[in-house]
């Protein structure tokens, strides 16, 4: 009885939302001769003798649906960019193309190009120009295709981890730890804990002392993943992370999405490498399959990467230095720079894992390499276009060793994870936007997400 009621409510709801069709479904399974209703935006218009031809897109796919509008319908208000509601009959053109012959067209929202609309269909706007209009740029074919690819990529990532029985969790955005210890945190609270205490004692300005301690926007969910991994096994998260790095480069954002996985019982770096390579190949192959048309819109010469069917390379940090030395690219004490990363990828002709890193270049939580206590079992994966795209390590699982390296008492909870039923773990973080750059062949990271944030750019 109850179920029947729910069903009838759902059916009513379905009926009301099924009133119009999305272009992706119409084109996938066209029912020629049937009546269809489409709502979308006009991407181009051609006026001919008896008909106005309009190409409509509704965001559901890269393709546009051609609409034939008989001139006796009111067509004067139709302009490029306006939103329309069209009813008509699906038919097939002599060339086999699916089109909609309209019997009713209603302009929902006119678009007056001369009133400051920044795009027009006859101009190939460069990304730098389009980026000035973050609130309008998803109206361009380029950005809308990118957003669909990003949507599919995220879906395939979740599919991959579900198929491997990982637990998906949400790690906090507000946190009191700087996981990487690089000091690139955005502070949510006043820095000085004494000041906070005094303010609280004086009952002053309660709003600014909300947590009563230093609080940041997270730079990584790793430490929280490790907590869950030590009781529930393999776990991952995909969420926003923040770095207050003063960089406006084509590879940096102040807010970016990181996919982070923590592998339970991982006691060798090869386990991480295998997992990362498998994941990357899966998401690249899948997204290229599901979003071929979008990838073509984004870059006409976007081909399947040659490395898809080859093994990734592995070299140690010291080997990398020697290779670079021979090329005249001397590595300084602060590590391998971007130019050198890309030179290593060029040298190997496939994505390359750099392993066995000097301890002083990496974070406190990484495990020492057996037989060499100056090195840690960490990896960076370098790829074309971006250089570094994944960073990971085995985690220090020895209580005393970790205690001696712990940067702050605020991380005592993290240390305590090694006390009760401890296990070896390892994990990695993969920058979603950098994966998008490689997948879509996009030079600038700011074009891989809807609303990029970078220094002095957070206006909307
Ligand atoms: N989960 C990870 O291993 C990523 C690492 N914490 C980083 O931010 O690079």
TrEMBL record:
Its EC number is 6.1.1.22. PROSITE patterns: AA_TRNA_LIGASE_II. SUPFAM superfamilies: Class II aaRS and biotin synthetases (SSF55681), Nucleic acid-binding proteins (SSF50249). The keyword Protein biosynthesis applies. GO terms for molecular function: asparagine-tRNA ligase activity; ATP binding; nucleic acid binding. The keyword Coiled coil does not apply. One of its GO terms (biological process) is asparaginyl-tRNA aminoacylation. InterPro entries: Aa-tRNA-synt_II, aa-tRNA-synth_II, aa-tRNA-synth_II/BPL/LPL, Asn-tRNA-ligase, Asp/Asn-tRNA-synth_IIb, NA-bd_OB-fold, NA-bd_OB_tRNA. Belongs to the class-II aminoacyl-tRNA synthetase family. This is asparagine--tRNA ligase. The lineage of its organism: Eukaryota, Metazoa, Ecdysozoa, Arthropoda, Hexapoda.
């Amino acid at each position: 009885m109850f179920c029947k009621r729910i069903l009838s409510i759902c059916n009513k709801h379905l009926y009301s939302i099924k009133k119009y069709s999305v272009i992706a479904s119409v084109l996938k399974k066209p029912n020629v001769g049937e009546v269809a209703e489409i709502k979308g935006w006009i991407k181009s218009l051609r006026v001919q003798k008896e008909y106005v031809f309009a190409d409509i897109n509704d965001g559901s796919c890269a393709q546009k649906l051609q609409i034939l509008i008989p001139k006796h319908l009111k067509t004067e208000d139709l302009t490029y960019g306006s939103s329309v509601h069209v009813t008509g009959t699906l038919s097939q053109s002599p060339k086999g193309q699916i089109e909609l012959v309209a019997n009713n067209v209603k302009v929902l929202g006119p678009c007056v190009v001369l009133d400051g609309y920044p795009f027009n269909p006859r101009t190939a706007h460069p990304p730098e120009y389009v980026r000035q209009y973050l609130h309008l740029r998803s109206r361009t074919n380029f950005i809308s295709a990118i957003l669909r690819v990003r949507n599919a990529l995220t879906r395939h990532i979740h599919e991959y981890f579900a198929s491997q029985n990982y637990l998906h969790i949400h790690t906090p955005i507000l946190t009191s730890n700087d996981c990487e210890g690089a000091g690139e945190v955005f502070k949510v609270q006043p820095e000085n804990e004494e000041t906070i205490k005094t303010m609280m004692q004086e009952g002053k300005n309660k709003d600014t002392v909300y947590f009563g301690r230093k609080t940041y926007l997270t730079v990584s969910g790793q430490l929280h993943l490790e907590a869950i991994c030590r009781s529930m096994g393999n776990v991952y998260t995909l969420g926003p992370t923040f770095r207050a790095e003063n960089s406006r480069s084509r590879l940096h954002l102040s807010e970016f999405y990181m996919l982070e996985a923590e592998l339970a019982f991982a006691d060798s770096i090869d386990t991480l490498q295998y997992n990362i390579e498998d994941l990357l190949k899966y998401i690249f192959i899948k997204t290229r399959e599901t979003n071929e048309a979008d990838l073509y819109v984004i870059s006409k010469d976007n081909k399947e990467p040659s490395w898809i069917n080859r093994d990734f390379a592995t070299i140690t940090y010291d080997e990398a230095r020697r290779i670079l030395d021979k090329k005249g690219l001397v590595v300084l004490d602060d590590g391998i720079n971007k130019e050198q990363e890309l030179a290593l990828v060029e040298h190997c002709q496939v994505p390359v894992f750099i392993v066995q890193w000097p301890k002083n270049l990496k974070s406190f939580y990484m495990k020492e390499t057996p037989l060499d206590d100056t090195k840690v079992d960490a990896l960076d994966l370098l790829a074309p276009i971006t250089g570094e795209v994944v960073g990971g390590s085995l985690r220090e699982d020895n209580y005393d060793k970790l205690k001696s390296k712990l940067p702050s008492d605020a991380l005592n909870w993290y240390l305590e994870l090694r006390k009760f039923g401890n296990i070896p773990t390892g994990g990695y973080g993969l920058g979603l936007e950098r994966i998008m750059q490689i997948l879509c062949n996009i030079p600038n990271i700011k074009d891989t997400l809807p609303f990029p944030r970078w220094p002095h750019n957070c206006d909307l």
